[in-house]
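=== How it folds ===
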Amino acid sequence: MTRVTLQTIADRVGVSRMTVSNAFSRPDQLSDELRARVLATAEELGYVGPDPAARALARGSTGAVGILLTDSLTEAFGDWVATTFLASVADSLAMSGLALTLLTPGANHDVVPSRDVAMDGVLVYVCGPESTDVAWLRRRRLPMVGIDQTPVEGTAHINVDDRAGARDSAQHLLDLGHRRIAILTIGFDDEHGIVADGAVEPSGFAGDQRLRGWLDALDKAGVTPTVAIAPFRPAEAAYQAARQLLATAEPPTAILCFSDVYASQVLRAAKDMGLQVPRDLSVVGFDDSPLAVQLEPRLTTVRQDIQGKAQAAVHLLTTVLKARHAGADEPTQHEVLPVELVVRESTGPAPKPGRRKAG
């Protein structure tokens, strides 16, 4: 089959090759009638348009932005926060005329997306600073914005105010009279259960900031929490950690949770152990996902604006891209977005002394 090129179309229409090229890439250079004739001929001959790689080379840009995920797509798409963020990023990029390219971890593969995929810039979403994929992106000197990452000097970042949200949630429990308070936070994949002496290093920037926020309020009140950790997956790990907390000699009357997903497992454990929420136990989540209002009772939680975070990240990256293109100083600011405590039915006054131990 004969390959259809710009010259093929030019010969059929009786114009120059440049005229045909302009019909696709610079339509303002042609009359409406001529452009319509060129495009109609191209369609008749089965021409799909200029080669994307060649066009990217000529323009000096790909029109695509990468997003690096620390998880596999299966895991990311199983998380409401991640899927909402990704969808909002894609929508925001589309409004700027940009496409989204998903970059999964490339360790132990011949093709490493962060090293090999062409893109104009990249969003780095919840990846550890030691990530080899992040290292490749930095070597390429790509315009970059980190989201929910530990801020790194010289790179723009978007975070939510995890610490303030956690502080407010702990203060809410203190104001309700709770003093036996536990924390269930995110740990590494090979860790779960109660942490001796509360000496815990949570996994990730959000985990660290939320723990700091909870302790800001609890330390000030003279309350020493019992701390348990669980990996984000499987959910059963958080359930088992919650059961351990509720089975201690002096079980907590309230539990602060890393996320709404963790909080749902605490509610499940409490029910299985014969406890009523919030009569016997108050529970607080984080994120205000749709799960929060589907649970029984509805969950007190900290709301973060996932869509707003995505839009802010895209806006910041497009600003970096424009600065790079213009040869100007690129923004490297660290933007922190506000959060809000949403009080629902899963929290109530601390039970009176003598509450029966969970069984």
Remarks:
- DSSP finds 14 helices and 13 strands in the chain.
- The first strand starts at residue 64 and ends at 69.
- Residues 305 and 335 are 14 Å apart (CA to CA).
